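Protein: NAD(P)-dependent dehydrogenase (Short-subunit alcohol dehydrogenase family)
Species: Cecembia calidifontis
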Amino acid sequence: MTLKGKYAIITGGAGGIGKATAKLFLNEGAAGILLVDLSEKNLEEAKKELADKRIHTHASNVSKPSDVKAYTDKAVALFGQLDIVFLNAGTEGVVKPLTEYSEEEFDLVMNVNVKGGWLGLKYAFPHMQKAGGAIMITSSVAGLTGTAKMVAYTTSKHAVIGTMRVAAKEGAPFNIRVNTIHPGPVENRMMRSLEDQMAPGAGEQVKKGFESMVPLGRYAVNEDIANMAAYLASDNAKYITGATFVVDGGFSA
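Structure follows.
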């Protein structure tokens, strides 16, 4: 029960990693969780799947300041405090050479992945400065290296690290810890999208190629990422901030 009595926000909460993390947080004793996602329908399905009265939902576009302020204010109104924020919302964008990327496609990814993370920090910090807490931002192994034909996603996931390091420095005086999590390929919707874009109609072959590059021989499952999020959210990680945590089965080694 490493999160007993703690209250959390999870963005991207209706996705695979978001739901797995919420489930683990509940099992670890979290007193309340606000799931945030773009789709009200997907949030309702996630809430039904988790089937726990401690789960609350709020539909928001994480790239809009008014939406981010609204979900943060709702969490504080519901719980009276904010201990954990998992800024997990993200989008993969399209797979194409950088010369063929449109400005609109680039801006969409940057707005969700980078601006969305910054806004989450901006509105969470004032509520966490009294008692401290833990903030995790989902980056990627793509934030540590380059990936051809994924200029927006790769750029955004590198940028997240800079955002985290600034937030870790500014949060430290208030005991707000901020770290990034870097998944490798994960068995979920995002990887299906990337596989199909990389080789339309032959996504399974792309998957096999990626798996052959993972020393542990498989994709991560959502729970692998949730385990890292739960650790960083807990007091077991109370001396850890400003760091990058890779969960990729050795993919980036």
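Remarks: Residues 103-128 form the longest helix (26 residues).
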